[in-house]
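Same chain as my last thread, 74 residues:
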Amino acid sequence: MRGRAPGCALVSPVEVTAATVQRGDIIQLGGQACRVRDLFQLPQGSKQLVFESGELLVIHTRTRLVALRLLRRR
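reply #2:
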């Protein structure tokens, strides 16, 4: 399922892991949409995500989440 976002961008749901998560991904946690502002590599393949709200989340190598990703038109 894809939808349009403002500015001629497509929004697509994608499954993300510690290896594939990107800045700008929107992850729903506890019913609240959180946009990834920054991320840091941790030992053993884990990543620490920093959201625009300032909240932190550590995801491990086996963690799988569904995120919305903006796919920009060229």
